[in-house]
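INFO batch 0412 | record 1 of 1 | parsing
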Amino acid sequence: MIAPEEAIERARRLAAQGRRAILGIAGAPGAGKSTLAAAVAAALGDRARIVGMDAFHLAQAELERLGRADRKGAIDTFDGAGYVALLRRLRAADEDVVYAPEFRREIEEPVNAAVAVPRDVPLVITEGNYLLVDREPWAQVRELLDEAWYVVQDEPTRIRLLIERHIAFGKAPAYAHDWVHRSDQRNAALVATTRGRADLVVRVG
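INFO prediction complete | emitting C-alpha cells
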C-alpha cells in the first residue's frame, strides 16, 4: 500500500517510457479515484489526460426505458463495450486525436467528444468503479492497462463524502443517505471483490 505522492512518481515513470501508457484507477464509489486522477494529471500537465469510465453511463432516457434509473451507477447501467472500444483506440495511438466523452455531474449525463487526447500525450488516466471486474466486456479492460491502482480510504469517511457529493449535486439529504446505503454500497461490494487484480493499493485521505 502506498501514498498518493508515491503513486504520482510511478505515474511519472509510466509517462516517460517512450510510448503511450494507460493507467487505470479503480475503487469503490467515493473512495477518491477522481481526486487521485486529478492530482496525477495536475502533476504531469500536458503529458496526461483523464478519460473517465463514468462517461459511459447510459443516458437517463435509456435507463428509464430499461427500468434501471433507480440504480444508476450499477454495472449494467454503463456501455462497457463502448468503453473498451475507446481504450483500444487510445492504446493504439494511431490517430492524430481521439475525442472521448465526459460525464457531467451537474446534469448527470455524459457529453460526447468533450475530452481531446492528442497522439503525443504519453499517459492516459482512466478511472472508475468497474475497471477490474472479471466479466465481459469489462474483463477486457485489465489487459489494456499498463498499471491498475485500487484506491482506498477509511470507510466512514468514504460514505460521508459520498453522501455529501450527492447532496452537493442536488439530492435531498435523506434521499442521498438512502441512495448511498441502498445503491452505492451494493456497487461497492462488487468493486471490493476486484481489489486483488490491481497492481497496487493507494490509500488516500
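INFO post-check: Residues 4-203 form a domain with the Rossmann fold fold (CATH 3.40.50.300).
INFO record closed
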